[in-house]
């Protein structure tokens, strides 16, 4: 039997086996009773044995027909489940979404979008990975992740991006530091100041953005210490060893041992962008992008 024709014949047989009535079975299948009869006769001819015993008053399964029904009912149920599961994947309602994020998206942008997405698509498995911006670019190119929150801008012919935020930058100082006595800080106030920044291994993209901002103002950054994680940076600042620079989105998580002041300059902002591969046609990715678009972009 050809696959498509065989499935049609088998499905017709299962319906008749369940109804044991050709008229009701034809109505259920939305075909003529004579066409249904021909289908069953064709199936019996192909199989080489009778499936039903027919009298003028009733229809019943033969012993072979009973066995054939029991086995095919299991197969058709499995087929229906497989079709349903595949349809959910095709519609982006189930499957796996592999999402990468960096520190500046970890507190608000990513969690809020994931929370909204999970409410709309509860059967999609979310695989979240913390990853620096440069690592995300490689992982996206190698199809190790589907979508990423990274430091922008990021313009590349192979990728699409969506700007989510342009976060104002703040200076983080020890308590009672001279800069903390100012209401606002200009970039020139930081000339010669001891800076404590994330190292180039983990914070490369952010360091390059900061370097571009300071260079545009003709100011050299005086980086005295480096650390790989935010807790170490804050500990070094709180100990009075220098100051660091954080985006506004992280300010609420700094604790009470440091003080913060905004940098009063329109260019001193750090962008967060959502990035995915142009060739990724997955509906889980597209639906996540749509969910993210519905959240207002933080102003530049």
Describe the model.
The mean pLDDT is 89. The protein is 41% helix and 24% strand. It has 300 residues and is α/β, with parallel strands linked by helices. Helix 1 packs across helix 2, helix 1 packs across helix 4 and helix 2 crosses helix 3. The protein starts with a helix and ends in a 7-residue tail after the last helix. The protein has 3 domains: 86 residues, Winged helix-like DNA-binding domain superfamily/Winged helix DNA-binding domain (Arc Repressor Mutant, subunit A); 92 residues, Periplasmic binding protein-like II (D-Maltodextrin-Binding Protein, domain 2, 3-Layer(aba) Sandwich); 106 residues, 3-Layer(aba) Sandwich (D-Maltodextrin-Binding Protein, domain 2). The protein is built from 9 helices and 11 strands.
Précis, in short:
Helices cover 41% and strands 24% of the residues. It has 300 residues and is α/β, with parallel strands linked by helices.
What is this structure's SSE topology?
Layout: H1 3-19, H2 22-29, H3 33-47, E1 52-54, E2 59-61, H4 63-90, E3 94-101, H5 109-120, E4 123-130, H6 133-141, E5 147-152, E6 159-174, E7 195-198, H7 204-216, E8 223-227, H8 230-238, E9 244-247, E10 258-262, E11 269-277, H9 283-293
Parallel strand pairs: 3-4, 3-5, 7-8
Antiparallel strand pairs: 1-2, 5-11, 6-9, 6-10, 6-11
Helix pairs in contact: 1-2, 1-3, 1-4, 2-3, 5-9
């Amino acid at each position: 039997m050809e696959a498509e024709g065989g499935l049609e014949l088998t499905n017709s047989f299962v319906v008749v086996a369940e109804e044991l009535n050709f008229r009701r079975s034809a109505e259920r299948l939305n075909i003529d009773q004579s066409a249904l009869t021909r289908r069953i006769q064709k199936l019996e001819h192909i199989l080489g044995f009778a499936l039903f015993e027919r009298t003028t008053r009733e229809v019943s399964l033969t012993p072979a027909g009973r066995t054939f029904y029991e086995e095919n009912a299991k197969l058709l149920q499995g087929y229906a489940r497989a079709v349903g599961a595949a349809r959910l994947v095709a519609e982006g309602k189930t499957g796996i979404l592999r999402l990468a994020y960096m520190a500046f998206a970890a507190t608000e942008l990513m969690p809020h979008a994931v929370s909204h997405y999970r409410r709309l698509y509860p059967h999609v498995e979310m695989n979240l990975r913390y990853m620096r911006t440069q690592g995300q670019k490689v992982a996206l190119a190698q199809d190790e992740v589907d979508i990423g929150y990274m430091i922008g801008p990021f313009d590349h012919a192979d990728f699409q991006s969506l700007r989510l935020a342009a976060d104002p930058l703040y200076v983080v100082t020890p308590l009672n530091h001279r800069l903390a006595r100012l209401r606002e800080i200009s970039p020139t106030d930081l000339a010669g100041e001891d800076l404590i920044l994330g190292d180039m291994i983990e914070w490369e993209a952010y360091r390059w953005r900061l370097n571009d901002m300071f260079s545009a103002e003709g100011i050299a950054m005086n980086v005295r210490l480096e650390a790989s994680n935010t807790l170490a940076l804050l500990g070094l600042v709180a100990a009075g060893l220098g100051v660091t620079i954080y985006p506004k989105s992280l300010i609420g998580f700094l604790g009470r041992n440091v003080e913060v002041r905004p940098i009063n300059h329109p260019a001193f902002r750090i962008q967060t962008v959502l990035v995915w591969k142009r060739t990724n046609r997955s509906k889980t990715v597209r639906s996540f992008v749509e969910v993210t678009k519905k959240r207002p972009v933080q102003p530049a």
